[in-house]
Design a protein that fits this description.
single chain, 276 residues, alpha/beta, six-stranded mixed beta sheet, 8 helices, 41% helix
Amino acid sequence: MSKRKPYPSDLTDERWALLEPLITAWKAGRPSATGHQSTHDMREIVNALLYQNRTGCQWDFLPHDLPQKGASYYYFALWRDDGTDHKIHDLLRWYERERLRRFADPSLVALDTQSKRAAAGVPALTTGKDPGKKVPGRKLGLAVDVNGLVIAAVVVPANIHENTVGKTLLDKTAEQAATVTKVLVDQGFKTSVVEHGKNLGIDVEIVERNPDQQGFAPQAKRWVVERAYGILSMYRRLVREYDHRPTSALSRVYWAMTDVMSRRLTATTAPAWRDA
């Protein structure tokens, strides 16, 4: 790592020790046909991705003491397209569940969606308008375990119905964690999602809101998915849809959760925006 003043988003030595073997193994599996060796510091590349995710800056506005757009975007896109970002995320999730003395994969998850506005320049073909929330943009769907760790995620245009997103999340959940037998959803999901779950061997329970409760009221076990969205909102790049490709927006989720889990695994405090 270069000798520069660190940013709050930078990897500590302990956090880098978690990621370095995974990235080193990735590099070993991609030998150069010409024998050329990359001169880029992989730790600094990851620092650039975490910096951008946390601050929300554009590629061209990365600080001069971090790898610039050419290198940073190259690896971001490469890891996005070959699934390396997802693999790193999943491995850290297993480590974190083991730390919490749980099995590698859960038996219960909670599903929910969140619609986000798209920034100017995001292709109209990848966006839509949520008819219920009146939000033009994209919809992020998450399936999380009881600790709020992401098991499956999907990014679609905001006009896609909750049921369609729910079915896709169920499919991805069954693919990612065959141990899941029960899923909790809110009343935005309908019977078709329950039936789809049955076909996958998953019991989908629609958690109904107590009509006597006023305002926001956390629902037992299902509230963890709401907390997951709250945690992701700390990453400014995820507050609004800036990426042209939905796959890039999905990669942002994996990197944000990788940041969260690496901090938890090393007992590193994450700075909040209200901190001086």
